[in-house]
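Field reference: sequence -> structure
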Amino acid sequence: MPIKIPVPGADLTIGSQELFGYRTGYRKMPSDVVIIGGGYIGVEVASVLGSIGIKATIVEMLPRILAGWDSSIVSKIEEKLRSKGVEILTNSKVVGIKVEGGQKVVEFERPDGSKGYVTGSEVIMAVGRKPYVEGLDRLGIVEKGHVEVDSSMKTKAPNIYAAGDVLGKYMLYHAAVKESVVAAWNMLHGKPIYEVNFNSIPMTIFTEPEAAMVGLSEDAAKARGINYVTVSYPLEDDAYAQIMGVREGWVKLIIERESQRIIGGVVYGEAASMIINEIALAVAVNARVKDIALLAHQHPTIFESIDRAAIRFSL
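Structure field:
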């Protein structure tokens, strides 16, 4: 369920569902908007609105938007958003919302304690979602606001499985579908046989162009003390990208140096949401970089960029 931060005036905001949903009572086009939250939902909303000429301002309490995403992608998305007229206010914690002169005013606080204000005809709350676990406490399966499961989707309680947003893991449609399938198969077998590899679930930001990632980021690999190396390939050199005129972006693979396994990937540019799936498969099956480098992707397709990146690894 969508989160609304507990500040005065939070009830004055709408969510992405009201803005884009078909079966809602919201039927107006705002002239300018303030978006609270710089996660992937807030960024996607800002990208869409900016593309159609609506002034959008993102207010994010953290030092950067898109926390947890590859910094090179964040920089490019920030650049693209600003080119569409989107203003990005980071280190800005929202403390209240009010109406003045027909406009909605969002008050925020900076780390030094100073206050700031930004106005818009509409305020969109996009700070994320939280698991809806009401009534599940009695089963003894809720921990820290979410249902705890193992990789087979089995909870601590006998014969109870769970899937989807209640897990609080990857709150994405494709993740929920796969978790549900694995849970159903294991229930039908009467014991846990199949597992979900959470590390291989890809994520995409549907901006223009798209951005996607899977597995470990560079920051995560560093935090775990993994000796890794990255290789990348610019789409400006890709035949398909040249033909279609979408040459902006790159494919980057994150490789564990000793084992030469692909442990993560980042894609920015045309068809990132499709390219990332093959990298996700490589992560899932512990493929080595040479396995990908030796694949003969059909020419001319943008998937050639994957083996072109892999072949840059010094075997």
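Note: The chain has a mean pLDDT of 94.
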